[in-house]
Amino acid sequence: MALADPLGAGLPQSDRLRAFGIVALNGMFDEMDANGVLRQAVELLPGDIAIVSSFGADSAVILHMVASIDPGLPVLFLETGKHFAETLDYVETLSRHLGLTNVRALRPDPEDVRRFDPNGDLWETDPDSCCHIRKTEPLDLALAGFGGWVTGRKRFQTADRGVLPHFELTSDDRIKVNPLAYWNDSDIAAYRKAHDLPEHPLYAEGFRSIGCASCTSVVAEGEDARSGRWRGRNKTECGIHFDVNARIARPLPVAEATVFSNGRFIADPWRDWAEGDAADGVRYTHVPLPVFLEHRETFLKNPHPLGLLVAPGDAIESVAGDLGRFASVAIAFPAFTDGRGYSTARLVTERYGFVGEVRAVGDVLIDQIRLMRRCGITAFVVAHEPTRAALADGRLGDLPVYLQPVGRDEVPVGSRRFLRRAGPSA
Amino acid sequence: MYRYDEFDHGFVKARTEEFRDQVERRVAGQLNEDQFRPLRLMNGLYLQLHAYMLRVAIPYGTLSATQMRRLAHIARTYDRGYGHFTTRQNIQFNWPRLKDVPAILDELAGVEMHAIQTSGNCIRNVTTDAFAGAAADEVIDPRPVAEIIRQWSSVHPEFTYLPRKFKIAITGAPNDRAAVKFHDIGLMASANAQGEIGWAVHVGGGMGRTPMIGKLINGFVPHADLLAYLESILRVYNRYGRRDNKYKARVKILVHEEGLDAIRDQVEAEFEAARGGVLTLPQTELDRIAAYFVPPEFAEVATEFDLEVERRRDPAFARFVENNSFPHRQPGYASVTVSLKPVGGAPGDASAEQMDVLADLAKKYSFGELRVSHEQNIVLPHVAISDLRDLHAGLVAAGLATGNIGSITDMIACPGLDYCALANARSIPVAQELSRRFADPARQKQIGPLKIKISGCINACGHHHVGHIGILGVEKKGTELYQITIGGDATEQASIGTILGPGLSAEQVPGAVETLVDTYLLARASPEESFIAAHRRLGDAPFKEALYGSR
User: Fold this and answer.
1) What is the pLDDT of residue A160?
2) Which of A77, A125, A323, B458 has the fewest Cβ atoms within 10 angstroms?
3) Which class for B538: exposed (0-12), middle (13-18), buried (19 or more C-beta within 10 A)?
4) Which residues contact B551 (CB under 8 A, 6 or more apart)?
5) Which chain A residues are within 8 Å of B153, Cβ to Cβ?
6) Do A414 and A420 touch, CB atoms closer than 8 A?
């Protein structure tokens, strides 16, 4: 089910982030469990995602999931210099227990510490600044090398986190993934028990959310887990989870720019060509065929992944020799009654042998999708709500059998008589 | 006859289930009418003036007695007790309720029938000669190839949203009884230099508001390459046919505007890429399908038939034999056309009872087989001459013995303003009045073969363009007027009728037709010279003058 490098892992990460600027991931994953969300994130950002963990009271859960997907994934631990000794021990024991091979400790810039916290009491006078130099700054520096990061935050933890989605888009164009967003205390406990995960040594002493020793206290029965953090101060977040507006980043819009591919809706790394785009610099953009022809030489020198947008009247023949340059061909169906795109799709896939993604964009209804699939279209950008619902349910509208051979991969059924083919498998 | 196997059954069942779901979604409001329209049209369901209309495909016009009985049952159970046979060899039910349609489709599927692609901008039911497989003049039985085209075109994913509807007709006889030159693609059996039989392909014929005679795009396409050739034409049409104006969207306009040579170049280029590919028809498959159409076990029966004696004994029977029987390739047999054009009736209509009688008679006298002709009659293709008298008696009892095939009262008429939302004028009352005016058999015989065709609007469903005398209903300033055309011909000598002059009122039409007929009777070189032959010799002038006077 993995996308074939949808975001071009070979690109500088800022390009991937830009491609992700149009991503909409939520909604589709409401029904998905934490593992699924995490896997999706790792697939979408191969080699480009980090897990940020405090190695606190609940951290074992998400780290266990990480280890089961890929123990080599980078795990970033903010070594603020203020942690409990038990926490530092726990980093060692838990990493060993789970087999994590890529845990990185992020330390504050010694220059900053010397300048702003020479006596080590900044936490007392200005905890926000303390968090800033010991957490936010080191993390920002480290995250510059990643397109997305995973947190263990959960909705139930605080009022502000009550709207936490699975996926956030931060203002610096990073994807923030919260696989446990919908989990509650008992989910955590059950998971820990089921997988026999080692407990943070301080948990037994009544610590429920564990940060720096200086700012963490024991939580009483019935108190919120995080109420032991910065107790007595009007502060619930250290700052690493603030977006520019000092709020949790906005949830991503659900309906727009999601593409149905390989049997499910996935994030869409592609964008449309826009006025003012530069032929030599665009990436992950569906370039209209006439625009491509006009600036063909420049586009051919553009090193980034490009797509081609074919409108109904476009002569696909004119780019037959260049199709191999594209990673995706988008076929426009401005009205579902305009069937020219079906011929285009067959020419692209059958005659010109294009093997990349072929997507239908425009007026796509469930009743056309089976025809499109047979003509070689593999992905669908769908706006019509009932159609989206049908696709999400796996109702693709396929007839089980067909009377004429079309496409490259339809398999003869039964009698193997002339013309007959089985329907495409869902 | 072709019989469904498991595969076909599965296909139709799946399609019926799909439409059931679509109907449910429509009823539940999940689909609006704009979204539902193309889906229902692809299942043969129109919204007409008063109600939905369901058009059921009768592939290449071939029906079994069992199927005919089921059509009668549907007419009785879900409609108002009758059905209407069309010029495209289909049957229409004019009063089904939307919620009943899935049940009707189930009934049809039970006898290997469906309504797939009887409307919508897709490849429609393939039509052919109603005497296919029986006619004495036939070079090759076109039904196996028609069946193969039917299969290939059924829910073809590339050609389901064409610019406009697409009609294919095929004939295996040199005398064209399927009007192939008035179809988007017309196929006529032809032979190459080696004497092998293949297909001459005509493209761009049609009627409607811009009548065109199909042009020969390829004089010989072998069986093996036919589907690749058809797909090549369809692809060129799908890509380049006009979509900006539905009245200019048929392939005839593309051929007309681009020129035959340009279209041929494009088709041939496509064909070059497609030929020899997956669509190549293996001889084994052609043989396999042809096996379904082997002639029935004809008996050795008496062939002589003294029409003179019969004429003295029973003039009505003699007239029936003379007009309604057609030469069969098997000695001792004839094909019999049952007229659905009784005096004062609506052309093409048959009651449930008449359908049952036709089914019984087919079973008894025609090896259980029937055909629907494109002239809206029913054909019993294989009748022993020795059975003709009994068959005739059975038809008389059911009111189906009108002996007027090919005569002036064997008219084609569209449903017209009485049913159709598009019509400008009524057609059926005009046809009824004409059939009363020319009801006298002796007069019909005197006039000889004469085809009158009536359309209630410019869309020409009544084929007025190819009527020897054509009548076209138009609307002018709120009144129904009728234009008279002359000289049209749907056969291999295809021609399009010319308009003789200003429109006439409905009351004036029968008199005008009488005037034209009288002009012909006076001017004909001999009783053997038919109306159309006389017109070819004389031109429009004498008819025009008779109708409108000299200026």
Assistant:
1) 62
2) A125
3) middle
4) none
5) 404
6) yes
Contacts of B549 (CB under 8 A, 6+ apart): none
CA distance to partner chain A, nearest, from residue B290 (Å): 14
Q: Is A183 helix (H, G, I), strand (E, B) or coil?
A: coil
Residues of B in contact with A311 (CB under 8 A): none
Residue B298 counted as domain residue? no
- Give the residues of chain B that fall short of pLDDT 50: none
Mean pLDDT by 10 residues, chain A (426 residues): 37 42 40 75 82 89 92 92 90 92 91 85 82 87 86 75 68 79 84 90 84 82 74 70 48 56 80 91 91 95 88 96 92 93 96 92 87 92 84 79 71 49 48
- Asked if A338 lies within 8 A of B154 by C-beta distance, the reply is no
Q: Name the minimum distance, in Å, from the CA of B161 to any CA of chain A.
A: 4
Return the closest-CA partner of residue B172 out of B186, B183, B150, B188. Answer: B188
Q: Which domain holds residue A308?
A: 258-422
pLDDT of residue B487: 97
Contacts of residue B156 in chain A, CB cutoff 8 Å?
A: 404, 406
Number of domains in chain A: 2
Cβ distance B156 to A406 less than 8 Å, yes or no, reads yes
The reply to whether B267 touches chain A by the CB within 8 Å rule is no
Q: Which of A371, A400, A401 sits opposite B157 (nearest CB)?
A: A371
What one-letter code names the amino acid at B119?
S
| Residue-number span of the structural domain to which B515 is assigned | 412-548
Pick among A349, A419, A420, A421 to test the B interface (most B CBs inside 10 A): A419
B250 sits in which H/E element: none
Cβ pair B158:A346 closer than 8 A: yes
Q: Assess whether A216 and A263 both reside in one domain.
A: no
Given an 8 Å threshold on Cβ–Cβ distance, is A337 in contact with B18?
A: no
B282–chain A Cβ distance below 8 A for any pair:
yes
Chosen domain end from A207, A228, A249: A228
The tens digit of pLDDT for each residue in A228-272 reads 777 766 677 776 776 543 344 434 444 444 788 878 887 777 889
Measure the CA dihedral A401/A403/A408/A410, to 10°.
Answer: 20
State the nearest Cα–Cα gap between A314 and chain B, in angstroms. 10
